[in-house]
Amino acid sequence: MDKDFAARRRRDLIIAAVLTALAALAPLFIKDVYVQNILILTLMYAALSQSWNILSGYCGQISLGHALYFGIGAYTTELLFTKFGVLPWFGMLAGGAVAAAIAMGLGYPFFRLRGHYFVIATIVIAEIGLLLFQNWEWAGAAMGITIPVRGDSWLKFQFMRSKLPYFYFALVLCSLAWFVTWWLEDSKWGFWWRAVKDNPEAAESLGVVVFNSKMGAAAVSAFLVAIGGAFYAQFLAYIDPESVMGFQFSLLMALPAVLGGIGTLWGPVLGAAILIPMTELTRSYIGGSGRGVDLIVYGTLIVLISLALPQGLVSLFSRAKRKGATR
Amino acid sequence: MGLLYGLIAVGLALIFGLMDVVNFAHGEFLMIAMYVSFFLFTFFAIDPLLSAPLVAAALFVFGAVVYLLIVRFAMRAKANAGMVQIFSTFGLAIVMRGLAQFFFTPDYRSVPHSWLGGKTISIAGVFLPEPQLMGALVAILAFAGLYFFIHRTDFGRALEATREDPGAVALVGIDKNRVFALGWGLGAALVGLAGAIMASFFYIYPDVGASFALIAYVTVALGGFGSVFGAFAGGIIVGLVEATTALVLPPSLKSVGIYAVYLLVVFIRPRGLFGSM
């Protein structure tokens, strides 16, 4: 069993390295800006969903309020940049730190809640954040912040002429989120989280400090999501509360993981790789009519996938493998 | 206004609170009800107030069909049942919004010159808008009816028993799907009532449900899952808090008060005010 587990982990790492290398070469063949844009978004959502998965998938604390951390990452970076001239690279880390701190601060009261009460609390706190930012004059209120263009540079992480630097950053972020998950999966924390998810009382009785493990998961998860938020802000060069903190982000972060397989290593990546291109393509090819056909198609697919594969798309792979093993 | 939230929340209290099924399309049910009411008015000149029973009946059928077509299968999922329910009903909500946009266009519509619209009534020198008053009345009746239904009829007992232990219920000859389909129909019918009342004084557009859905969730959770009375109390509290917040903070922040009160309540009582689950 242990040997199997170690072998699986080694295999996962190799697959990830190969995929990353292939992805890194993709821009050599894909010159179309529209397709590049879809790839960037796919990688970003894969990273976000992977981060969300740490708290909600592995540790079982379903959060539908991660838009809060996404928005905080975006706002911290851009407020520091536009008001104090702090480079986005530092702003990004500051945003991550602020988000992690807020996640832990909120964790104190929140982690006492269970089930629906917890989920609704996470939605509500993100909604409060959204309303506060919409009314915060200094931070641009509902108008948001336009990031001043200072020319292409890695220093300011700003590129107007090419999307490639954003692509590579998104790739690094996605790989990082994956690697952190991979690494944590086999650590003390990973085992604690799964124990907390399955049966908190039993875990507690065996010496797992349930509360601390939830806090740890929340902090890591919020930090990574905030980095994603900072990236998104630099990528769009414009942010407003609704577009970085809206409820739809919380759902969009959860959706790839759920469709791909919640609480699994590959679920978020797989889910994002299918969901995001699908979203973008339906939007641009049949959404142009403005009559909502894209919504109908998109919604129907979500209903069908979630009903047909409650354990996510990864269950297809494990099912195939099990069949192979019995043969 | 508080009872209006209560009215929207009654149906949710039944589906989400008593049957413990997540319905992320609740706001869209409300939207459909408002459209049904609007079209009954436009084509047959039936005032929303009179068409309320018709709308409720239409939504009853709709709710039962949604249960049989989607939710039944979502509940069958052994793994991640909660997430499957959230995302299958969320997908349904997106489809419903898309369909509304497709058939009804994203235009804002309203029911002009309804019996209730824009009229006020004076009680002891206080002017109250008639539609809201009517909404309050309907809300009280709906809650009383639901309370009676859950606690005094065989169906209500069957419903609670089915949630508690579907396996045991099957042994005594209760068809789980029939009970839950009726429950969903009833929950949707209550939303239908809310929609019909609201059609006479709210703009109707494909996204209208979203703005009310979250408040309805908060209302039910505030009162506590599994309690009809809790949802009623939650509705009143939400209304009062909103009115008070509007006095202190700018109108754009009025929901913050509601959310803050929810957090405060569940921090002190993690199962809501009157919750049993």
Textual characterization of the structure:
- The complex is a heterodimer of chains A (327) and B (277).
- Chain A is mostly helical and 327 residues long.
- Chain A has a single domain, classed as ABC transporter involved in vitamin B12 uptake, BtuC (Orthogonal Bundle), CATH 1.10.3470.
- Helices cover 76% and strands 1% of the residues of chain A.
- Chain A contains 14 helices and two strands, in the order H-H-H-H-H-E-H-H-H-H-E-H-H-H-H-H.
- Chain A has a two-stranded antiparallel sheet.
- In chain A, helix 3 (67-84) packs antiparallel against helix 4 and helix 6 (164-185) packs antiparallel against helix 9 (210-236).
- The longest helix of chain A is centred in the first third of the chain and has 28 residues, at 2-29.
- The model of chain A has no long low-confidence stretch (mean pLDDT 79).
- By secondary structure, chain B is an all-alpha fold.
- Chain B has a domain at 2-111 and 125-206.
- Chain B contains eleven helices and two strands, in the order ααααββααααααα.
- A two-stranded antiparallel sheet of chain B has the order 1-2.
- In chain B, strand 1 and strand 2 form a beta hairpin.
- In chain B, helix 2 packs parallel to helix 4 (81-104) and helix 6 packs across helix 8 (176-199).
- Chain B is globular.
- Chain B starts with a helix and ends in a 9-residue tail after the last helix.
- Chains A and B meet through helix 5, helix 11 and helix 13 of A and helix 3, helix 4, helix 9 and helix 11 of B.
Fill in the keyword field for this structure.
heterodimer; A: 327 residues; mainly alpha; ABC transporter involved in vitamin B12 uptake, BtuC; two-stranded antiparallel sheet; 76% helix; B: 277 residues; globular
